[in-house]
Write a structure and sequence with these properties.
The protein has helices at residues 13-24, 37-47, 59-73, 96-124, 135-139, 145-165, 183-186, 190-198, 208-218, and strands at 4-7, 28-33, 51-53, 78-81, 127-132, 170-177, 230-233. It is an alpha/beta fold. It has one domain: NAD(P)-binding Rossmann-like Domain (Rossmann fold). The longest helix is centred in the middle third of the chain and has 29 residues, at 96-124. The structure holds NADPH dihydro-nicotinamide-adenine-dinucleotide phosphate. NADPH dihydro-nicotinamide-adenine-dinucleotide phosphate (NDP) is lined by residues 8-9, 11-15, 32-36, 39, 55-57, 82-85, 105, 132, 134, 177, 179-180, 182-185.
Length: 240
């Protein structure tokens, strides 16, 4: 049986690597993105994976987007909540909009995607939800009260929904990446990045594929007894 997956923010960075890892596992994958159509078109042409544009922070748009994917690819078995943004700043300079936008997309997106897909998984008796948290949601990070709060919220969301899905064959887990060499980290100023790398025991940034392998495993039949768990993939930077 071919399973169907949606990877939010799947057209670039970690999400793209997750799409490819699931595709290699024989899963029929749909990637979602926010608005970078050039990246999405290049992704679709390169991988053959269809890309669907909707804002995961928008409840109605997410329900409609997931319904379209289910109509075109089939009932959704696997959801990877990977879409995320940063709007960094120290609290005394952070605007309410920057707080709210990060909560709306990074945490609200998980709720919206689950509302669209979890009931179907529960009815069919099989499902996998993997939420991409962050080391900064576990440990906190200067200048990121919004991002750290949203990512920390993802870890709580994961444990709560795991309890609701457990007896219906639906597992819900999180992965907490450390610093990974994507566009998001390329935006960090070089001197700050050097200091960050100096604190990673493995001595380098992680690669998107190293997160994707964890997602592919947690999305498989073999991971049926793992639920409510957070897998840290961070080069030893935070042992939690
Ligand atoms: P990128 O910035 O490289 O890619 C982000 C992806 O998310 C893009 O596809 C983007 O779409 C999409 N996206 C952003 N906002 C929305 C939205 N509102 N609705 C739908 N899609 C959206 O991010 P990374 O690959 O670096 O990060 C992926 C995830 O991993 C994020 O949740 C991030 O917080 C987390 N993470 C990353 C770490 C890192 O070191 N890179 C470390 C820890 C966690 P578009 O192309 O259209 O803009």
């Amino acid at each position: 049986m071919t399973r169907v997956a949606i990877v939010t923010g799947g057209t670039r960075g970690i999400g793209k690597a997750i799409c490819l890892a699931l595709q290699a596992q024989g899963v029929k994958v749909a990637a979602n993105y926010a608005g970078n159509s050039a990246a999405a078109d290049a992704f679709a042409a390169e991988t053959g994976i269809p890309a669907y544009r909707f804002d995961v922070g928008d409840h109605a748009a997410t329900l409609a987007g997931c319904a379209q994917i289910a109509a075109e690819l089939g009932p959704v078995d696997i959801v990877v909540n990977n879409a995320g943004i940063t709007r960094d700043g120290v609290l005394h300079k952070m605007s309410f909009e920057d707080w709210n936008e990060v909560m709306r997309i990074n945490l609200g997106g998980c709720f919206n995607m689950a509302k669209a897909t979890f009931p179907g998984m529960r009815e069919r008796g099989w499902g996998r939800i993997v939420n991409i948290g962050s080391i900064n949601g576990q440990a906190g990070q200067y200048g990121q009260v919004n991002y750290a709060a949203a990512k920390s919220g993802i870890h709580g969301f994961t444990k709560a929904l795991a309890q609701e899905g457990a007896k219906y064959g639906v597992t819900v887990n999180a992965i907490a990446p450390g610093y990974i060499d994507t566009d998001m980290v390329a935006a960090v100023p070089a001197p700050v990045l050097e200091k960050i790398i100096a604190k990673i025991p493995v001595g380098r940034l992680g690669h998107a594929e190293e997160i994707a392998r964890g997602v592919a495993f947690l999305s498989s039949d073999e991971a049926a007894f793992i639920t409510g768990s957070t897998l840290s993939i961070n080069g030893g930077q935070h042992m939690y």
